[in-house]
Amino acid sequence: MSEKNLRVGLIGLGSMGRHHARVIRATPGMDLVAVADPAGDKFGVAGELPVLPDVAALIDAGLDAAMVAVPTIYHEDVALALAEAGVHTMVEKPIAATAASGRRVAEAFDKAGLVGAVGYVERCNPALRALRERLDAGELGQVYQVLTRRQGPFPARISDVGVVKDLATHDIDLTAWVAGAPYESVSAQVAYRSGRENEDMVVATGRLANGVIVSHTVNWLTPFKERVTIVTGEKGAFVADTLTGDLTFYANGTVESTWDQIANFRGVSEGDVIRYAIPKREPLALEQEHFRDAVRGDASGIVTMAEGVATLDVIDAVLTSAAENRTVTL
């Protein structure tokens, strides 16, 4: 693909789509040339552009690339239409409503030789990117455990999926990415506490293929917002706060203790604490740049559709585990 600006279309002008519209317009090398949403443009993001009724009309505008931000249940149909039309596409997470559906989408883009990406924006969070770099550099030594907490009040934007597919999907994707290994097994419990048909709380534990143990607490019923990833290893623990973009390192203590009662305790002691000064960019802007670069030939920054399907396999395992009250091996 040459360096001329990419003609980009956006379908879905809801609570995520409005941000994508803003970011695409601000991304060098991208021109937002068409927008579509059968429900209209309630946030007024179309500007000069007509609001098209469907994906067929979007494709007719003549696109190099597209962003799909429709409700999850429509991801497969919209993405398959774009693949058939030869349009490079990024689909908001999760890739589709089920793993089987996601597989069909991934295969269609693979077969067509097109860029297919999934919008797991947490991977572009400055705290998690800095964490991954430091883990890759061996600053924690061997990684033992990854723990995530993603809690807050119910968001009115969600109607078609529960908390597992909407929120826990982020934690599963980022955990496998940060720890560098796929899930091997998972065990979960869910709860339905607010009268909706989908689950609104989940606690899941698991093991990755490299032996790292993981834990996820996710819900829509906590009256404060929390987005924390804690990675514990042989040299201490990293705490990434993706709400603030902060990364803190808690080192294991190296100071000898002469207090016998403490010295005899076989655990680790507290050492230095460092909060890193890291550059902070809007994650969505970086995600869109990675997609642009992938269309131009450098796909190193995107979350691939194959990765999106692998995450959905874990999501399905979480829901199966909760429904059948057993550990599921992947």
TrEMBL record:
Domain GFO/IDH/MocA-like oxidoreductase: 129-238
Pfam families: GFO_IDH_MocA, GFO_IDH_MocA_C3
Residues annotated as domain Gfo/Idh/MocA-like oxidoreductase N-terminal: 6-120
Annotated GO MF terms: nucleotide binding
Xref: PANTHER family: BILIVERDIN REDUCTASE A
Protein name: Oxidoreductase, NAD-binding domain protein
Organism: Actinomyces urogenitalis DSM 15434
